[in-house]
Design brief:
single chain; about 325 residues; mainly alpha; 3-stranded antiparallel β-sheet; 6 strands; globular
Length: about 325
């Protein structure tokens, strides 16, 4: 009995799709209209010229299949990340290259075409491509990944921390109100950069002064993610949900939802005034550092950051050691001084 495709709804994108001939077709947001378009497609489907099945032994076919799977089974931000890296790699491969012909040097050669890439970007690119072929191996599409071992650079830890004094300087230098409210909320909440970009009015719990992502929209997709807000952050969020009752509440001066690239451009403009390049993740690390210095216990701080235990906060986020005055004071307290 043949497979009979049916429309399906993707909540993160709020769109209806149907998968025909290995391709996902966007049917729009309205359910009734989506089914009307679906029936039109099905009525004309048999009259369309048949399209040859893509060769499963081609490297680019594996990459295409992986992206289709990620689009259905992973968050939109994850899909965008994989799409960017995988498409970049696919563009460097001969279309007729088979999986058996693919070698690790194809990955490193693709990296070498981008000399301006920093170690973290190169490492992420290699990991994204490797995961595509590991997925294909687990799915039984290929016998084994031909690029399971690739020489890639070690990632560099971004140990940038913003002190309270520097934060005030940053706020004075920024003239764009929409960028200011994004940074202020990051400073006040310790939220992940991708979480800030995805907050919608439906996520805001005004009574408890927090943002709550359901499990399917949270990192790890297992438990809800709660982001608690200070009075300052709550004032910003309350105003933004009134301005934008649907869609992302944090938007740039043009009214578009902030993207990773747009935020990076804003930080590049800030760098010319400040003298050094910051990133949104530095505000999260700064939140963790200040929380510990102000007496919040590590377990509570970890849960406020969205972690299950204190491992990440001690290894990655908290940078109390970068404040010599705090460390000297802690040493005196340790000796009863």
């Amino acid at each position: 009995m043949g497979h009979y495709p049916k429309p399906f709804y993707r909540e993160p994108r709020r769109l209806w799709y149907v998968q025909l001939d290995g391709k996902q077709i966007n049917l729009g947001r309205d359910e009734a209209e989506a089914y009307r378009r679906y029936h039109e497609l099905m009525a004309t489907r048999d009259t369309r010229p048949s399209v040859p099945e893509p060769r499963s032994d081609l490297a680019v076919s594996v990459l295409d299949a992986f992206l289709e799977w990620v689009q259905i089974n992973r968050a939109p931000t994850s899909y965008d990340w994989y799409l960017r890296h995988v498409q970049t790699f696919a563009s460097t491969l001969p279309k007729a290259l088979t999986v058996a012909q693919l070698k690790p040097y194809h990955v490193t050669a693709a990296c070498d075409q981008h000399p301006k890439w920093k170690p973290n970007t190169r490492n992420g690119f290699c990991r994204a491509v490797q995961r595509a072929f590991r997925w294909a191996e687990r799915q039984g599409r290929i016998d084994r990944s031909p690029i399971a071992v690739v020489e890639k650079p070690t990632t560099e830890t971004k140990d940038i921390v913003v002190s309270p004094e520097e934060y005030l300087t940053v706020m004075k230098l920024i003239r764009e109100p929409r960028f200011r409210e994004l940074l202020e909320t990051a400073w006040e909440s310790g939220a992940r950069p991708q979480e800030l970009r995805l907050i919608e009015a439906k996520h805001v719990d005004l009574e408890q002064a927090r943002v709550v992502f359901p499990p399917k929209e949270s990192k790890g997709k297992k438990i809800p993610r709660g982001i608690y807000l200070t009075e300052g952050a709550m004032t910003i969020v309350r105003r933004l949900i009134e301005e934008h009752p649907t869609g992302a509440i944090f938007r740039n001066s043009e009214g578009a939802a902030w993207t990773k690239d747009a935020i990076n451009c804003a930080f590049c403009r800030l760098q010319k005034k400040l003298g050094r390049k910051l990133h949104l993740g530095a505000f999260r690390k700064s939140w963790a550092t200040e929380a510990l210095k102000n007496g919040v216990d590590p377990v509570t701080a970890a849960h406020l950051l969205g972690h299950r235990d204190t491992a990440m906060i001690s290894r990655v986020y908290a940078k109390v050691q970068q404040d010599p005055q705090h460390m000297r004071s802690a040493m005196k307290r340790a000796k009863g001084g």
